[in-house]
Amino acid sequence: MIVKDVSFCGTELLAVQQKENGKIYVGINSILRELGFNEEQIRYRRDKWNADKVLSKGVQKFSYPSKDGGTQETYCIEIKRLPLALAKIEITPKMEKEIPGLSEKLEKYQDVLFLQLDYVPLVSGVK
Fold this sequence. Notes:
By secondary structure, the chain is an alpha+beta fold. The protein is 39% helix and 26% strand. The chain contains five helices and five strands, in the order βββααββααα. A five-stranded antiparallel beta sheet has the order 1-2-3-5-4. The relative contact order is 0.14.
């Protein structure tokens, strides 16, 4: 397992890559914290992603050596499922009013990840 911080939208996020299958995961807490959610909101969102039928297929708990010598555990979501996970967080008028920085960052992250998705035509010959 490879664990390192990666650059995303001008910030550093925890990333984990499994050596055996090459799958890449991003730390749930790190991305939600970077968006501006508080600890209670992070726990709530993480629990929702763990309970979601589709998203939970890409959520795993990893243990890795911490920088201070111990072992650290974190929940991560497979990078391929991150766009869907973030799209499920609705930007409400209340959020825009009460936490404008969070809603702006969330919209930016959603846009960036949406633009990364490959377009696959549903009908043969359609471009």
